[in-house]
Amino acid sequence: MMEFFEFLGVDTETSDMSFSVSLDQGCGCEWGTRDGFSSLLSQKKNLLNPYFWQMITEISKFKQDVISYLEELQNNPDIDHNETLGQFIESHGYSELFQKAYLIPICASIWSCPLAGVLGFSAYYILSFFHEHHLLQLFGLPQLLTIRRQSHAHVNKVKQELEKRGCQIRTGCEVNSVSTNEEGCTIVCNDGTNEVYDGCIITAHAPDTLKMLGKEATYDETRILGAFQYVHSDTFLHHDKTFLPRNRAAWSACNFLGTINNKGCTTYWLNVIQNLSESKLPYLVTVDPPHTPEHTLVKWTTSHPVPSVAALNASCELHQIQGKRGIWFSGAYQGYGFHENEIKAGVVAADGMLRRNCSILYSSKHLVPTWAETGARLLVTRFFKSYIQTGCIILLEEGGTVFTFQGTNRKCSLKVSLLVHHAQFYWKVATQADLGLADAFIHGDFSFADKNKGLLNLIMIFIDNGNLKESVGTSSKKRGWWTPVLYTAALSSAKYFIRHVLNQNTLTQARRNISRHYDLSNEFFSLFLDETMTYSCAIFKSEDEDLKDAQLRKIYVLIRKAKISKEHHILDIGCGWGSFAVEVVKQTGCKYTGITLSEQQLKYAQLRVEQAGLQDQITFILCDYRQISNKDKYDRIISIGMIEHVGHEYMEEFFTCCESALKDDGLLVLQFISTPDGSYDEYRHSNGFIKEYIFPGGCLPSLSRVTSAMAAVSKLCVVHLEEIGIHYYQTLRCWRKNFLENQSQIRALGFDDKFIRTWEYYFDYCAAGFKMRIIGDYQMSDMFCIVATDYSTVAADNMVPKRIETESSPSKGTSEATRLHPPLYELVLQDLSQSGAEYNEYREEECFKRDDANSNSPSTEELVKDFSIDRYPVRIHLFKENQYEYDHTGYTVFASPSECLACKCQDCRAKHDVVINAINTLTASVKELTSKRGLIPSKRILFPSTPLEIRAKRRRKVISKALSSIQKSEIITPLSVCCTEQCTMSKGEQHELKKVDVEATAE
Q1: Do 616 and 674 share a domain, yes or no?
Q2: Domain containing 317: what range?
Q3: What residue stretches are annotated with the Amine oxidase domain (predicted)?
Q4: Of 524, 538, 612, 834, which residue has the fewest beta carbons closer than 10 angstroms?
């Protein structure tokens, strides 16, 4: 039923399934369950009534007796199922009060039948229902869910879905008869219409079905359908509170009132069942009252099947008449008489008509947790209740228990339903926190109603709630493996972290770590990667673009950014399966050397190069980056998705090796996944799913960690940086789709279901991170200048990159270097003067006024700024909502530090200080926009100071004066020209800064 509602998109909400009994108008026994012991002891005399406490004891005994009875019948099918409820009660010696004040009232309320007939019901029928619906205990009942906005919401959804599939729905058309002949089924309606169909499904009460079949009903149809008897009840909607228990403390959702003459009625309190707003008079529905209630609003008649022994036997023979004449039968009478039974019967009938096999679970398995698992369930549900502030998580246990956790914050509208199959789920989450959740999914302890996006949405809900917790948190203590989200997971957190420390990427361990992932099987990776076998972020032009085209676009973008030519010899650190090697040599004719630690990748790449006939230009080496020969020098070094395997401790060594292997005029281009600066220390001191299950020894560096390691040990300088992480979300979704479509082939390679669920978790886990922007993917290079790239010009058909020719009309006094190398400082100065950036008392820039989470989001114009420096178009991109609208034509370009420091005159020094501080301001803004809280910048997150920041802090006092002098054109020449030469230039020559149309300039 819940999966059906999930499919339709029907919203549900928590309801109440409490129960009360009031005998002899409150003079006899009276008790309830809505408010715990206060309802149970609403009749104070029961506190000293030994018969009452005997009944309570018998209720506990009843549960054990029922479970034993059902297990015996299940294990011994030959045992007679015709025992009545009265025979069961007599054989187990239950007291009279137990029968009159507990068992009979519950049964009479559920099936709306006379009290005298209850003990003649089928024992197996009744006790199975009690067991499946958790009616064997007074307290600890599962949450009851009801449809939000009542049943018409559900009916409308079903109607829309059927009409969307071409179904014609006719309402208000009474069917008089259903007959069959050689042509099919003939339906005669009350309005005189006569229609013939190939088949017919009759979903109606059994007596009504026989009436429609009339004289054409077969002997078996009459015998089987005639065994289902019904009771008819008068039902009233009213406001009469006298049909509730005498003691208000006993009032519950369902209230049974017994009379002196051994009759009874049931009253439903709609205000608590359907979450109606409080009203002066309660809304009540009473079935079979002894007299008409006061303040009656509506009266109608209902019918309900009787759970007799004959009905139980008939339900076992229904297969004898299904589809025999092209007619199938369904209805609530084929189960316990409720809506979910009607849906189940309808599914069976429809599958029968379509000649499809349908397996129905008639007796659901209940979770039977141990004491430890029961305690873990209590701990986990309490944690979810306090942690979930936005979004909705529903836990559906096997057997029907439901836990709903819904936040009041509307930031996240996601809703996900988890199907809990084993109580170990709670124990693993309680003792291992997030890794326990992953382990439970891998071992099949739970699954999702939404097979496509259930896991993805769950992780996104956790991320959103984590961000909310952090945004309102005041704790400044450091976090790591010693502070898991559940304190009961401390020991396992320490164990996993120690294991991660032991996987540090020494020369020996690095090869083991790489082999555990990349040497699984080349055939395995080919089942979810595209034809190019590229295992990194693609760049998509549109949402439905083919993965291969997007991967080729990414490769050509990197070739263009690296400015590779035929004369170059390039080194690829982490060459993968050779896709980049083949494409770069085909496009440029350069010489290529690639290194890897994966033996499987090496074999595949070498074979691929031989098939392409490029073995004279391409060389692959099985070695570590630390084993690169010092004798070889390379014009370009490329590393795509490899620096994540270096590790925090070896980052400086990596850049030392790169600088040693790179020529003086060479270029290093990196593409790497990164974690936010503000959460980097917490991340690397914590364990996690990726470190434990996917990439042992892996560590996602932060942007500051990469740049600081580069600056500390090398002369390399970052001149270009672009974040393409949103494209990784779509890349991972493509991989997941391919992976799940090829499950059978993956199993054929020797991988089991646990392995498949591990990788499914991996794809969704990472996709959620990129979707929520808590991790990113950067492309970085150290060129002095880079040609603007327009991804829309990288055609999907031939994938040959095109260069945009831009005419330049330099102002007087500007040099060739100025035209080709637009300096960042001019861009920053114009940005500051045009945007009117404000500083608070701590001289921190208010980035787009977004410190307040409730403030309006910046517009596209605020986030994307166009400038012209010597008529050279430049665009800074901070963020844009739709990744497919993202314009990739501009890059941030930095001037050479040596040029900035060439001259020591006062004007140049003042100008240099202004540039330094302006760059720092821009860098801080980017850091805030890429912090782990998403787009909302936070002053609580502290970032390590860069060398520029350290120097800039010493010179804050001259900022105002320097800005003023620049705006008065006292300093007029770009820093890309030597400062000594600048000082000799005429002060009358003006450097023109104008805003231009980027598209017009490109044309």
Answers
A1: yes
A2: 172-229+308-353
A3: 106-207
A4: 834
